[in-house]
Structure prediction request, 224 residues.
Amino acid sequence: MKLLEELQIPYKNEKLYDLALTHTSYANENNTYSYERLEYLGDAVMELVISDYLYKNTEYPEGKMTKLRSHYVCENANYEYSTRLGLNEYLKLGHGEETRGGKYRKAIVADIFESFIGAMYLDLGFDYVKSFIYKHVIPLIEDKTIEFFDDYKSVLQELVQTDKKSLEYVVVNEEGPAHDKTFTVEVKIDDIVYGKGRAHSKKEAEQIAAHDALKKAQNKEGVI
Prediction:
């Protein structure tokens, strides 16, 4: 699998990772298994690694560590980790879910990060998974400029207001039946497109567009 080569994972059982990227819609259409059991396992592994990290690297009381862990192991955070690794580009979806934009659906994209971690744990063991998380996740936790569990629209709004620029979200495309539409939204700052988002609600698409704009600003692809 090209993804494993890109991430330089010394895998032993490629089928585990293939399963980790198999959505229930694909499994139902092809009479096979989905990533759900691996997701369950990966969630537990993530919680352990992040708990261990917080315990060893902070002096926070139990309550604060629990709150922080809930930020770092949640749908928004898992979505961030997953998209940065490009996992959603390798998703196996059923025809209907594919046409509805499942590759960009936050819940699915977040789930496959945990299932991928579960597959890695079974394939390469806890020590390797821990090193992988320390390489790809911990730097995001330690980078205080990344608010991946926050309201991206609010963060972008504050950033734009500082320079007194205009901010606008524009729906540029709608597709699908009325009960299950997919919206594509662009965020414009002073009439220049800085980010794009695609989701099954306008609000979610706006959040993804704002997130895209913030990532570009952090990567210095554009100056906000």
Notes: The first strand starts at residue 167 and ends at 175. Strands lie at 167-175, 182-189, 192-199.
